Backbone:
């Protein structure tokens, strides 16, 4: 039986800074004009319209490569979610707009919480399934318009199932043990936030 | 019109006297989970908050990135970001005209107007213009004083800190010190708030480049880059992220934002920033 030591590094944070990934620009948009880009601790590019000047803060520390990787994975997840709403009406993979809203919200919370990126499945228009696997266990998080359920399974059986009450969504922190069970090989840098600024890990 | 230009002259005169300048301000609303209805786009929100069309609007093709609307009001850049988990309303300086020779770091010149605008937005939010249910609010402000080197920037910054936090720094770089004084809201029952102040020395880089209409960079010539060193004091006053709490009513959002602004105003005075209008 495999065992793994679990290291969780809390990034206690009470600020409300917008995460840097929030400020990222899609690659097909030029980024020239930046406003209010200096309130945080990393390069920020608030891109709105092409003009002639860029303002950014620079920082001496070197950014963690895992953050960059995480960003790329979640960018792909966001693009996939978007595609699911633009399919033809009768397409089996198309999801309802309300499910899209809920799944986007949950995916963003997972991203902010620095959870390993999930794979995404669709069972029909009324839910999206986020899946983490990589070891013995599988963890499935099913997100509907108003409800969330979680299921942890081994190849032999279901180990745990949780139905979160309607309109009572789980704090992403509550999901961490399950995600860890399925992705024990992947480090987790957990972030809790009291600040309202855009943290650098949004990059 | 005449009184308007006189007011601007007075503001500019005061602005020139105080080394502390306003760099940006932000009001943030965090929608509750699960989202009961689709979040309005930045375009819709911009129209609600600023009562007209923005100069530009950027749609997103990615569920995890925001829509963005931007314009100019009252001598400031106004922009709105709408994202599944947050709505940001930002106020920042108007950039210098395209073609300005040397890159410069610009500030919000009329801080009286900045304060008035923040108060106005807070009042507008009380009218419930955002249909999404909101579980958390935040107000951010950043003030800076541009300095020649780290020695000067550190010295300026330390002088603004309360006595008990003052430390001995000379020419060290990348100074950051942040404290949070959480307490219960005095306006809305059972809401706990964070009152965060960050003192830092920031390296701000301004990059100028020639751009064609439509945004494509002109191929000739490298961008002109200029670095500025700024002592920075920023305030981030916000309510706790509480998953179990019921959503805040529009009235409560407004009251809490008002409390956040009032506290930032008191704090900046106590630190000796003396920002006009706050």
Residues:
């Amino acid at each position: 039986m495999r065992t793994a030591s679990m290291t969780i590094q809390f990034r206690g944070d009470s600020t409300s800074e917008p995460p840097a990934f929030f400020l990222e620009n899609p690659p097909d948009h030029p980024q020239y004009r930046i406003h209010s880009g200096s309130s945080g601790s990393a390069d920020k590019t608030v891109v709105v319209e092409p003009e002639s000047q860029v303002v950014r803060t620079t920082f001496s520390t070197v950014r963690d490569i895992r953050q960059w990787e995480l960003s790329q994975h979640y960018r792909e997840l966001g693009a996939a979610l978007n595609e699911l709403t633009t399919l033809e009406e009768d397409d089996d993979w198309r999801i309802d707009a309300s499910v899209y809203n809920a799944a986007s919200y949950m995916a963003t919370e997972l991203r902010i919480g620095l959870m390993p990126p999930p794979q995404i499945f669709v069972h029909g228009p009324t839910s999206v399934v986020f899946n983490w696997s990589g070891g013995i266990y599988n963890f499935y998080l099913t997100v509907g318009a108003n409800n969330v359920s979680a299921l942890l399974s081994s190849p032999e059986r279901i180990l745990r199932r949780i139905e979160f009450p309607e309109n009572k969504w789980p704090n992403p922190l509550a999901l961490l043990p399950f995600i860890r069970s399925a992705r024990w090989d992947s480090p987790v840098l957990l972030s809790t936030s009291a600040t309202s600024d855009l943290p650098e890990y949004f990059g | 019109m005449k009184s308007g230009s006189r007011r601007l002259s007075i503001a500019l005169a005061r602005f020139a006297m105080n080394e502390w300048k306003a760099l940006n301000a932000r009001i943030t609303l965090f929608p509750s989970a699960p989202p009961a209805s689709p979040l309005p786009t930045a375009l819709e929100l911009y129209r609600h908050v600023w009562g007209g069309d923005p100069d530009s609007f950027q749609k997103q093709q990615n569920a995890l990135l925001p829509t963005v609307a931007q314009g100019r009001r009252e001598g400031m850049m106004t922009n709105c970001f709408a994202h599944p988990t947050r709505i940001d309303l930002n106020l920042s300086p108007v950039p210098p005209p395209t073609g300005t020779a040397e890159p410069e770091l610009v500030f919000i010149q009329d801080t009286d107007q900045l304060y008035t605008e923040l108060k106005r937005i807070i009042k507008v939010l009380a009218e419930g213009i955002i249909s999404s249910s909101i579980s958390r609010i935040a107000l951010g402000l950043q003030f800076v004083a541009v300095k020649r080197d780290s020695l000067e920037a550190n010295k300026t910054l330390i002088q603004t800190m309360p006595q008990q936090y003052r430390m001995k720094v000379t020419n060290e770089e990348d100074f950051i010190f942040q404290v949070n004084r959480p307490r219960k809201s005095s306006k809305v029952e059972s809401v706990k708030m964070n009152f965060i102040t960050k003192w830092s020395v920031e390296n701000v880089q301004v990059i100028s480049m020639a751009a064609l209409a439509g945004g494509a960079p002109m191929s000739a010539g490298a961008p002109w880059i200029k670095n500025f060193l700024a002592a920075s004091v920023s305030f981030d006053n916000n309510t706790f992220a509480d998953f179990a709490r019921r959503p805040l009513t529009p009235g409560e959002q407004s009251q809490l934002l008002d409390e956040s602004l009032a506290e930032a105003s008191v704090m900046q005075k106590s630190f000796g920033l003396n920002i006009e209008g706050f």
Summary: The radius of gyration of chain A is 18 Å.
